Amino acid sequence: MLRMRLSKRHIRTLVPLVLVLCVLFMGYRHQRTPNVRTVTKNNNSNSNSNNNDYIWTIKSDKVTNCGTKKWGKDEIIGLLSSNHIDLDSNVDIQYLDMNQLVITNIGTKECHYLAKKFERCSTKPMKELIQPSLKGYTDEHAIKKDIRGSFGFEWFGKSEYLYFDAISIGSLFQSQINDFFVLIDVSDEGNTGKDQVSFKIHDLYFVFQKYTLKQLFEMNTNSDTHHLVSDMNILFGTDCKDPRQDWNIYKNKPLSNHYRFPSYISLERAPVSKPPGYHNPKTKILLPDGKNLKIVQLADLHMGVGENKCIDEYPITENCHADPKTFEFINSVLDIEQPDLVVFTGDQIMGDRSIQDSESTLLKVVAPVIEREIPWAMVWGNHDDEGSLARWELSELVYDLPFSLFKFSPFDTRDNSFGVGNYIQEVYNKSNPSDVLMTFYFLDSHKYSKTGKLHPGYDWIKEKQWDYIKDVYETSLYKNIPTDKPHISMAFFHIPLPEYLDIDSKKSPGEQNPIVGSFKEGVTAPKYNSGGLKVLDDLGVQVTSCGHDHCNDYCLQTDSARNPIWLCFGGGAGEGGYAGYGGTERRIRIYNINPSNGNIYTWKRLNGTPNDKFDQQQF
């Protein structure tokens, strides 16, 4: 008999090959879909809005057949009548959200994966809670966040996800099913009350309550009662937050504290009746007469899941944790300045520290601002989308958050070729809302150059982006700008323009342009000039402000355009980003704009001495 002998080298090669073949043989390719909301443009040709006032509608990716139905008033009345439900006199039927979900079962999916493409999963529902009468009416909703924190960090391994079955209120009416269980809470104890059952997953109990349809509806339309759970999410890290309307994290105990990061359950409890203004609208900034507009710029926070390690801390302290220290600084400045607007200028998220869940990072980043009910805008940096969510997915999430001014332009693309988040925000006179006092431009400066041999380094704002904002300005914006008084215009982006290097004057050879602040590191502007400064000049922009270079915090008045423009850095604020070059203490820049005389004032504050201003100047 012929015997074949394999060398050790061949055996080492054969083992991973067999593993790959096994996964392929299983034939299961799992497409990961983040638990975020999608945004679609409403192309309503009858809209009376200006060209720059784009209308958007929100669509949840978790809602399936029953959730996308449009319910007519007569149909709702008929369903209520057939189920013997009398509507409370305080509830307007046209505001009933019949697509709102209730959760009827819960379970886990345990998977084996290879790289980031293939997963083979087995489902483990709470079999004791399987409700046959609901079969065909419910939909499965997977929370695609690996509780174990393995997926994305290893080439192969075991991952685990939470999922739930849900049914819409409208589908329950149609089914006329009585006596069903729905999720009402999570608890670290298994004790249950009357008509309740609880099921343990990892270290938490999920509590389900038995209801009749009448009981469920009356409870959820009464604003004075504790609304049922309509959605669920998982967030990671002991410092995670959920500032969204109707959402609350159960922080008494984590779902699991045995893996990479502790995981926490966040529950949404929203009423069925949602009158106009219930969901946070796109905020319109109205400035009272005689009041200045104050902006706090937060540049390069570099946060991640969990507390993270400090990088290049200066001055050095013991046991420094990056994100908590950064938040302490941010909270101090927000409390001192009481701003009217906060602008995040990129690299809010450190992608390689958010591989498990970028949503956890992003929600805690914006929490201090949302909690203070401050309108805020955001642009992306080169690190934000290097975690679990792509740029488009991050933008979908940000668009729908409370007090967010973030918008999509009609040309923003999922492939980032145009960038995502190119938009314009105007500030209006509160006593005369048609009076435009200020205009702010927000642009996506992309990431890394795609023509590395010709233009190595970082990418740039494309010519078509500049053309877009110029076209909006020429077709609509300029009509609203008064000519009999000052008008303030500013632009915000992440990567600096090439003109940030204009130390030497272009118009007065041998002289230097005015500069205030620290020039401590080489400016990482793109090697290609897309002509943005000229466009900004044509738009009447007086000041631009960016991030990216953590140790540069100067404002430079360039004379490369027809009119002098101040080019400013925000200065790195986050302890999770570099700050070398001899030691650089984290800082935050503030702008104070006087609409009456057209003056812009700016200063900065240091982490160690936030009560003190420095580098004060007037433009």
UniProtKB/TrEMBL annotation:
It comes from the Eukaryota. It holds the Pfam family Metallophos. GO terms for cellular component: cytoplasm. It comes from Maudiozyma barnettii. One of its GO terms (molecular function) is phosphoprotein phosphatase activity. PANTHER family: PHOSPHATASE DCR2-RELATED, PHOSPHATASE DCR2-RELATED-RELATED. The keyword ATP-binding does not apply. Residues 1-31 form the signal peptide. This is Similar to Saccharomyces cerevisiae YLR361C DCR2 Phosphoesterase involved in downregulation of the unfolded protein response, at least in part via dephosphorylation of Ire1p. Keywords: Signal. Residues 293-551 form the Calcineurin-like phosphoesterase domain.
